[in-house]
Write a structure and sequence with these properties.
hydrolase; hydrolase activity; nuclease activity; HARBI1-like
Length: about 300
């Protein structure tokens, strides 16, 4: 009998694959995920945890009542042998989807993986546990907040792009191209908070460069890779944030300059398709107006927003 590979060697080989795609052991990915998920990929479950996230968005990105930024990306895979067009996406390659909610520090709070590339945002988000928890009010979010200068209480909410529905708990941009100045400022303030999820995906792909290739494995194994790299990403954010996230976008508000992150020089992951659904509730639209008015008010404005929203 030959000497078996030690756990440490198997771990080293797996990490090398995730960084370079030069070798692979799926069992180690599964074991790593099982060992790490409770500590490094556990969604918040109490009011206190959500309030801490919202406080960090307010302190770091000047956006109030935000519990996370939401987006989805296509992970390129080889064509599965048992499928025809199920995994073929709108960008004309085969993929599985990663849907993620991210906090103010680029940490993944919630991930949903494995939807086929053909799936659209409406189906992926509608079927995920996060959507159901929002609808059933089981996330234990804090109650709506009274904000000075705002006539209605603001719900704690997720920031997202046009791929997602507008609700009281999900705020996204206005749909029109020709926007007045208050709406342009709102878009800037929203995108500033939402940029954390773009950067989280970019950092993930920059550090685990397996995502910049077409992964030549069965889609079930790809799901294992996505889950374990999200855990490892959060581990690095928690333990070596300054070095690990150093490829992120940098916005210098003092000098009113924006420097794209190094990750943007890589082949980027493709986002999910935008939605044409426009049946948002009147209260959801009104909350977006209230936020817009707050961001241009004396209480809610920031000194650099007039310049930055015009770039």
């Amino acid at each position: 009998m030959r000497v078996s590979i030690s756990p440490g060697e198997r771990l080293s080989v797996t990490l090398r694959f995730l960084a370079t795609e030069e070798s692979f052991r799926s069992e180690t990915c599964q074991a790593l995920y099982e060992a790490m998920k409770q500590q490094y990929l556990k969604a918040p479950s109490t009011e206190e945890e959500w309030l801490k996230i919202a406080d960090e968005f307010q302190a770091q990105w000047n956006y109030l009542c935000c519990i996370g930024a939401l987006d989805g990306k296509h992970i390129a895979i080889q064509q599965p042998a048992d499928s025809s067009s199920e995994f073929f996406n709108y960008k004309h390659f085969f993929s599985v989807l990663l849907l993620a909610l991210v906090d103010a520090n680029y940490k993944f709070l919630y991930v949903n993986v494995g939807a086929t590339g053909r799936a659209r945002d409406a189906g992926v988000f509608a079927d995920c546990s996060l959507k159901k928890a929002l609808a059933n009010k089981t996330l234990n979010l804090p109650p709506p907040e009274t904000i000075e200068g705002v006539s209605e209480k603001i719900c704690y909410h997720i920031v997202a792009d046009d791929a997602f529905p507008l609700t009281k708990n999900i705020v996204k941009p206005y749909p029109h191209r020709k926007l007045d100045k208050p709406k342009r400022i709102f878009h800037y303030r929203l995108s500033r908070a939402r940029r954390v999820v773009e950067n989280a995906f970019g950092i993930l792909a920059n550090r685990f460069r397996v995502f910049l290739t077409t992964i030549n494995l069965r889609h079930e194994k790809v799901n294992d890779i996505i889950l374990v790299t999200c855990c490892l990403h959060n581990f690095m954010v928690a333990n070596n944030m300054s070095n690990y996230t150093s490829c992120q976008d940098i916005e210098d508000t003092d000098n009113q300059q924006f420097t794209p992150g190094q990750w943007r020089r890589d082949t980027q992951l493709y986002g999910i398709q935008t939605t044409s659904v426009r049946n948002s509730s009147k209260s959801a639209k009104e909350q977006r107006v209230q936020l817009t008015n707050y961001f241009v008010s004396e209480n809610g404005s920031v000194p650099w927003q007039d310049y930055m929203c015009s770039l």
